Amino acid sequence: MIKMKVDAEYLERWLGGVKLETLSSKTMSDVQRLLEYYRDIIVPASDVSVSFPTDDGGARASVDKQQVFVPTNTLNEGFVDDTIGLVIHELNHIKWSDSEKKTWATCYAFSKQILTNIYTKDEDDDWVSLFEITFSKGAISLEELMEIPKRKEVAFLQQILKDMAFLLNAVEDIRIDAKCSPTLRKYIDKGDKRHGERFIEDYKEGKYNENTFYNVLYRLLFHHKGMIKDAYIESMFGDTDYIVNSTPTEYTPKVFTVFGKEIQEHIEYVYHNAKFKPIPSFGQGTTLVDSYMNGSADNFGEQLEKQFAEDFAKAKEMMKRVPQSEEKELSNKLVNGNGKEIDSGAKFHDKYVNAKFSRTPISAQRKREIESFKDIDIVFTKEQLLGDYDDKPQEITYAIAVVDGIASVSGL
Predict the structure, then answer these.
(1) Could you report the per-residue pLDDT of 254-289, keeping only the tens digit for each?
(2) Could you tell me if 14 and 33 are in contact, meaning their C-beta atoms sit under 8 angstroms apart?
(3) Which residues contact 30 (CB under 8 A, 6 or more apart)?
(4) Is 383 helix (H, G, I), strand (E, B) or coil?
């Protein structure tokens, strides 16, 4: 049992006014049962699972896998209502959003447009594109992109796709939260308010003024959530109704068009920090001529495209609505934040993502304890009893545990 200050106002109401003071296995079971109840409301007649993570696999919600893992980091801090809000939010992703594979296919299609038009010099002083450098050591598989990368090239591509997907996710968050019923959205709003207060304080001090990737991303999110009024976001992409009433297929090309400059500069920044040498040694060869004999960047990229399958075909069609970026030389400075290695948005991103997605595994034994309460119902009741030496009644609270229909009474 974990003792802490528990913030569970809405869960306590659902439990009939019971005050929660500890994060016990019973409390965690109540959280899971409530979430399963909301799951049946949000995604009825589905096989979506809601459970606690028991391994280090980076467990989080997955549209593809139809599963949601409870974000135990916020739960461990005592923010029970916030935790419920995060899971409701993820259930809405499963109801409304595109799959991760489709989103990544779209991000890869746009990243390819950018990477093929940014050039730098290799060790032989020849011009080579970032796309060629990315695939300079051979093909990159979809499986590699979804795992902890073992190659710097894979880490670079994974990072830029993850960040682009997170930008689209910010827009999708605005859309699906607006569609959420007020009864359920109160949990989401509570968590947004907690994180928003931290952001707004720094925002008012001008710490997010530069139009860097993460700064713009979070200004976009909180602007459309109604927590700030940002002139740049309003002028570039300020129509909240458009976001709410469109689909990812409709708004994605516009997002990539409007924020193309920020995305391109961010890709350059990530490349500088990836620190792998621009040697176009494709396949077994060491020159560009050899590369076409042994496998070129285009060929290696096509292998990844084939793994995305029909999702990439749809992404290519979508990218026809996005203007092609012009050829340019790779900037020699860390362009994100005018040379700053970490800007305010990046710092907030680290904290926000950890709060939103971190799932600290629990032990198998703890999970069994939590699941054991599914067969137990606790009913609280009060009775007025006369005292032994006077006629003044005494109020006694009883907790009645009903296990498979058999009651056990305990005085509190």
Answers:
(1) 999 999 999 999 999 999 888 776 654 444 344 444
(2) no
(3) 11, 15, 373
(4) strand
